[in-house]
Amino acid sequence: MDDRIFRDAMGKFATGVTVITTDIDGEPHGMTANAFMSVSLNPKLVLISIKENAKMLDKINRSGKFAVNILSEDQQEVSMLFAGQIKEKREPEFDRLSEISVVKDALANIVCNVYGKQVAGDHTLFLGEVEDIVLREGNPLTFFAGKYGQITAPQLT
Question: Which Pfam families does the record cross-reference, listed alphabetically (predicted)?
Fold first, then answer.
């Protein structure tokens, strides 16, 4: 099967949008990713997938920790900035959580220590043991068929 058909099929799965962050020598680094999932409640583990040629791969290997920042519907430009889709120089806004840079105002900031990793094809899968979490109210930024979107959280009665 051809690569385009595979990519198109994978694009039919709607996802949230995250920015993965880590710090090297006190400097924050980030990349947009939608390959993220929860794995285990005990211990609390999540998984991210980083392409082998991504600069973030070496940074996470060096730092031994990362944060998953789940973006809100108002943070499409943040996603585009970390995806390299905005070429003009902009400084992203960070907060700090458990001594790591996290995206300011994200729906969730999830700080993890690398628990394990596995090379899988042209990606490395990082298991992260969750160390700290901050949650905020709001609606998520989504990605479907190569486009950004939003969904509205259901009203609880």
Answer: Flavin_Reduct
Q: Which of 61-65, 72-76, 87-91 is least confident?
A: 87-91
The structure's pTM equals 0.92
Q: Burial letters for 30-50: b for 16+ Cβ neighbours within 10 Å, e otherwise?
A: bbbbbebeeeeeeebbbbbbb
How do residues 36-57 score in pLDDT, each as one tens digit? 999 999 999 999 999 999 999 9
Domain that holds residue 45: 3-66+95-148
Distance (Å, rounded) from C-alpha 1 to C-alpha 72? 35
Q: Are 96 and 102 in contact (CB under 8 A)?
A: yes
Q: Looking at the domain assignment, is residue 102 inside a domain? A: yes
User: Based on the structure, what is the number of domains in the chain?
Assistant: 1
